Amino acid sequence: MSASVEKPHGLTDPERAAKILAAIPDHDLDTQRKMNYFLKPRGKRLSEYEILTVYSQPTPDWIAGGLDWGDWTQKFHGGRPSWGNELTELKSSDWHHHRDPGRRWHGPYVKDKSEDWRYTTRLLESFSADGGIRTLDPTWRDEILDKYYGALLYNEYALFNAHSSVLRDCLSDTIRLTAGFAALDKVDNAQMIQLQRSFIAKLVPGLDDSTHAPKQTWLTDPVYNGARTLVQEAWQGIQDFSEILWAVHNVYDPLFGVFARREFFQRIAPHFGDSLTPFFTAQAQTYFQVTRTAISDLFFESLANDHQFGDFNRTYLRAWTGKWLDGTIAALKDFVGLYAKIPPIAGVTDKEAVTEAVSRVISDWVADYADKIDYKVNQQNLVAAVISGLK
Amino acid sequence: MPISAATKAATDAHALHRAPASVSPQEVHKWMQSFNWEFSKNKTKYPTKYHMANDTKEQFKLIAKEYARMESAKDERQFGTLLDGMTRLGAGNRMHPKWGETMKVASNFLEVGEYNAIAASAMLWDSATAAEQKNGYLAQVMDEIRHTNQCAFVNHYYSKHYHDPAGHNDARRTRAIGPLWKGMKRVFADGFISGDAVECSINLQLVGEACFTNPLIVAITEWASANGDEITPTVFLSIETDELRHMANGYQTVVSIANDPAAQKYLNTDLNNAFWTQQKYFTPVLGMLFEYGSKFKVEPWVKTWNRWVYEDWGGIWIGRLGKYGVQSPPSLRDAKQDAYWAHHDLALIAYALWPTGFFRLALPDQEEMQWFEANYPGWYDHYGKIYEEWKALGCEDPKSGFIPFQWLLKNGHEVYVDRVSQVPFCPSLSKSAGSLRIHEYNGRKYSFSDDWGERMWLTEPERYECQSIFEQYDGRELSEIIAEGHGLRSDGKTLIGQPHVRGTDLWTLEDVRRAGVVCSDPLKRH
Ligand SMILES: [Fe+2]
Ligand SMILES: [Fe+2]
Question: Measuring CA to CA, which of A89, A191, B66, B446 is 20 to 30 A from B221?
Fold first, then answer.
């Protein structure tokens, strides 16, 4: 509902505009034109991201880094506070310290994704016009892609949902934005897997894009046993927002997620005439890498290197790593059982090649994560544990 | 069909039909409901006494990438207008100063609401069981991130272009000093995120968004335009385009619990409490910001209120939910009384405490006084005369040493804070419906101003433990409080808050110190 009669606008109605101009002082009343000027910028100068985001959460000063004071004005039934230090085991000297190096606020984030969407649609159109579907090996398409790649959507969907309580509970604005964008990327991955299935079903008469088969695979196939067990726990088994983010983004996804996307589906697809899947796995890996940059700032730059609580936090991060690594290795061990379901490809699916692939992922993880919190691990043992799942 | 036959079919199909194909968002979304599965721990971390149904649908059918496309297109229009057209017109400093000050409060406080709505919709995403419903709440999470950034952008833009950037540039640090902040936190922060998840949804979506979004986001754009501000409409109307989906989320929340017996028992009480919670702050604050924070008036607040809160929301919107057992809240009648005078009562207190603001406040001029009297008969005899007396005592003049809060105290007009809403009120000067009540609990006294809040506190006092500003500031001299809360401009001595919007005669911290105002908790005198 809006007012029916057009009312004069102060900017354009000349009489009114003149009155307004007369009321505006002929000089500026302050010289400080930078919003959030009191904030120490991470880079040389305050970025638009820092201006638009930092301190939008009204954190009281008894949560480190907060500018507000006093108590919450309404609490949960029973008196639990809206936000409090007890929401995580980790400690910080300033919860508002984290910055996403990508400087993403909502505007740039949706702009990037909307470009991805446009490019995805263009690619699908050219793929279909090109008849790329004709070279797709039917067994790969119907037995592996449809069921096992399809089942991966549930993995991504669970990881997406693991972020709901993080977005409710986390203690600052920049963490909340980082977690929000990571979450949307995860549900996007899940949706892109289903989109690819619907696309293939459109091009191949007689195929159906129902989620029934992949869901059954996810729920009952031993290949996904370990993955399913782990993501269920990450989704609803724990509530500490730091632990959830750590388990998902610093242990499970860089190992299991990267292996499944990069080393299995992306690497093997071309051998079966499939140029479509690598497009989507590459897109998911792009999101993974962008998220990694932001999450690494949170955990390494901000929490593990906190001048006051760094050592304390590292102790927790190491304990959490141990806790989630076992399940992740179990998930990978189950997953490599999938190699037995495809025709052998020399140099790709034999034990030696798979061992190399697993080693690549594990050594990446050690360099990018474990080393940064001095988590000691025997890489060979981990690789062997995974490889023991080869059928 | 055998596999080889399927491949042949694909090849044949391609031979016949070579046109490019793609997949629409709806074709993906139609499978979303099946993305969930049951497992033993799959229950929410935010318990609710209601049960949300597993098959709840969501009508907007967005997927992540399509969401991004839509929002990015809106951003392009909005930021294009702002950064190109508006800046060329010099529109960032062509609004009436009274309104330019109002936007320090309005945009920053709305930002807090948007920010907390991120966490609130995340809580609902966690507590919903249907995958479509989760997806709908997720879109809202993203929208609220957008709105947080957009509100910030208004203050950011004003900081760059408006003749008085102070307050726009540091609202996030200085807003906590004054008497409006804590009440704002109740409605816009804690009310959305601390409680039974469905109760929070009712606060956020069914009341905050479905009821107060119209006056807050739409009516404000009319007041802005009338006062020369085209920045706010450009941004706020773009925010508003997302809000329809949020109101629909609220509607779906009710639909999802409609068949639950708990809904019959609790829903109307929760709705009544939520409505009272929201209106207790918004009714006076919005009325005050519009009518006292502008030079050119659009229409009396009571009219806007009646149209949007009473008729549109209380009548039509709640009426649509009637088939689910939802009734118009009984507190609506009391609120209707407040809509007439409550904002005048609050404006008086806000002006009396102007040094604690992060914005400049001005007395109504002669023309405005006539408008007030014409639209609220009796206004002049009650409020107008007080403002005239304050003016005569030199309240605008830094050399006078007179701050109206002193006048209130000296004349026995104690200012209390309602414990539950955190809204200040002055019983001896109040024309609105409330009245003072005091309770003692665990050796401390607490003040209240209305039945509904009093009842909420009596039921669950542990939810309302937050001290009022007067308890916090008890015994402290005003200039000290302001300095500690960073209420100063970049010269380190002039106050951000001022009792007028002129370019001269600005009060300094020293002027306030000379006035010698000492805060005290009125409950100590009971
Ligand atoms: Fe919003
Ligand atoms: Fe909203």
Answer: B66
CB crowding B419-435: b at 16 or more within 10 Å, else e: bbbbbbbbbebbbbbbe
CA of B144 to the centre of ligand 1 (A): 5
How far apart, in whole angstroms, are the C-alpha atoms of residue A130 and residue A125?
8
Identify the DSSP state of B444: E
* Confidence label for A3 from pLDDT (cuts 50, 70 and 90): very low
Side chain identity, residue B435: S
Tell how far CA B136 is from the center of its chain: 22
pLDDT in tens, B441-500: 999 999 999 999 999 999 999 999 999 999 999 999 999 999 999 999 999 999 999 999
- How many whole angstroms from A265 Cα to the centroid of ligand 1? 39
Q: Which two tokens stand for residue B383?
A: 């409020």
Question: Is there a contact between A187 and B95 if contact means CB atoms under 8 Å apart?
Answer: no
Backbone dihedral angles phi then psi of residue A60, each to the nearest 5 degrees: -75, 160
What is the distance, to the nearest Å, from the Cα of residue B457 to the centroid of all Cα atoms in its chain?
A: 22
As a whole number of angstroms, the distance between CA A187 and CA B64 comes to 7
Determine whether the interchain pair B170/A37 forms a contact, defined as Cβ–Cβ distance below 8 Å: yes
Residues whose CB falls within 8 Å of the CB of residue A205, separated by 6 or more in sequence, listed in order: B6, B9, B10, B12, B13
Token pair 């949170």 in the structure block, residue: A298
Q: How far apart are CA B294 and CA B286, in angstroms?
A: 12
Which ligand approaches the C-alpha of residue B249 most closely?
A: 2
Q: How far is B292 from chain A (nearest CA, A)?
A: 16
Alpha helices in A131-276 (DSSP H): 138-139, 150-161, 164-169, 173-203, 212-220, 225-232, 241-246, 258, 267-268
Q: Which two tokens stand for residue A355?
A: 């061992």
Written as six digits, the tokens of B401 are 């040493």
What gap in Å lies between CA A215 and CA B35, rounded to an integer?
8
Token digits for A226? 């370990």
Q: List, in order, residues 6 or more apart from B280 with CB less than 8 Å away.
A: B183, B187, B338, B418, B420, B421, B423, B450, B452, B453
Q: Which secondary structure element, helix H or strand E, spans residue B333, and what is its range?
A: helix B331-352
**Cα(B317) to centroid of ligand 1, in Å?**
19
Chain B CB contacts of A210 below 8 Å: 31
- Indicate the burial class of B279 (C-beta count within 10 angstroms; 0-12, 13-18, 19 or more): buried
Query: Which residue type sits at A102?
Result: G
pLDDT tens-digit map of B2-35: 556 667 777 877 776 777 889 999 999 999 999 9
What does the mean pLDDT of chain B come to? 94
The answer to whether B519 is a known catalytic residue is no
Helix (H) or strand (E) holding B417: strand B416-417
Report the complex ipTM: 0.97
